[in-house]
Amino acid sequence: MLSIHSFTFNPFQENTYLIHDENGVAALIDPGCHEPGEKAELTEFIERHQLDLVLLLNTHCHIDHVLGNAWAKRKWGIPLWIHEKEIPVLKSVEVYAPNYGFHGYEGATPDHFLQEGQVITLGEEEIKVLFVPGHSPGHVVFYHEPSKRCLGGDTLFKGSIGRSDLPGGNHAQLLSKIKSELFTLPEETVVFPGHGPETTIQFEKRNNPFVGEKVSY
């Protein structure tokens, strides 16, 4: 059984996720922790539950999702996985971070690159990598088929979608990929987004004003 825990960090109110199998083998997804108190909260949870953190995964590399990358890599000695098309997105954070008030930002170098359709083994669980660009050029989503749960980053939100007006974004591509990659998942699939509350594929297919059934073109 896969367990999913969420933490909301930084001024962007980004959702950081910690997932693990029943034996405590864990992965950290999109660590948005920047302040000491945020890092302490995450550390305390990992230590209290005696988790064995082995992977660091980024759905994409906008600033609010990568603030804790370097810290987590160093603290737990874990490799960072991103999609190769996110390299320029990740590198650009070092340039603009001070403009958002993150003067102590430390960049991190990826160790491995995620591939579309790749299956990641996390202890006794398997996570599939879905390629859903549009919000950013190399955005991926992590899908756990047995429990029908999806860690969607900034692709699909409850009643909304990720913005596509940032460098590397593509609105038409995002809409197309949501329909081909996410809306083809079972309707009962629960989506854990990068911001805001959880939602389901069924709800978004029926109600999302950008890609749902009620959209008129």
UniProtKB/TrEMBL annotation:
Q: Which cofactor does it need?
A: Zn(2+)
Reading the lineage from the top rank, the first entry is Bacteria
For whether the record's keyword set contains GTP-binding, the answer is no
- Name the SMART domains on file: Lactamase_B
User: What range(s) does the Metallo-beta-lactamase domain occupy?
Assistant: 13-195
UniProt keyword list: Hydrolase, Metal-binding, Zinc
State one Pfam family annotation. Answer: Lactamase_B
- For this entry, the protein name equals MBL fold metallo-hydrolase
